Amino acid sequence: MTNKTGLEFKVGDAVVYPAHGVGKVAAIETQEVAGMSLEVYVVTFDHEKMTLRVPTRKAKTAGLRTLAAEDTVSKALTVLKGRARIKRTMWSRRAQEYEAKINSGDLISIAEVVRDLHRAETQPEQSYSERQLYESALDRMAREVAAANRIDKDAAVALLGKSLSAKKANQPVAEETEEAEAA
């Protein structure tokens, strides 16, 4: 959906960039690059103290998108209530898959990572790398839920925690590996 200027986003819009999460379009500038004029969105990420410049023509292919719609947020919260699905593959492989889901920028995929790596008080402690991935996914999801619902991040974390505590069962469901399915 483009506006009158032909651009997808305008200054002040909250947007999601896959690798960095929720940011704000601070400006739309024209920059001189290699002798050519290039129009860019200037996106700021306050939580990372970072500014990103995304060419307006490449915004879609770069994955820049609007905040998740209300139905997507609801679906993501429902995913958190489901049973964890843990594949029976080596941790390094699962960690790569989780990282890819987090960096996809897709709220449902991020919710799956949060669900799969969440540990209740009664469950065994997580490894350092599991905890890092969990906290990264939780932070990314909380920021988008907070922005979409116009609440602060702490309220969003509480909302996610409520959905996680409503899980159907404590024990994760082990999924067969792709290799076992192929056999």
TrEMBL record:
Any one GO biological process: rRNA transcription
Pfam families: CarD_C, CarD_TRCF_RID
Segments forming domain CarD-like/TRCF RNAP-interacting: 8-118
InterPro entries: CarD-like/TRCF_RID, CarD-like/TRCF_RID_sf, CarD-like_C, CarD-like_regulator, CarD_C
Highest taxon, organism lineage: Bacteria
Protein name as it appears in the record: CarD family transcriptional regulator
Species this chain originates from: Brevundimonas subvibrioides
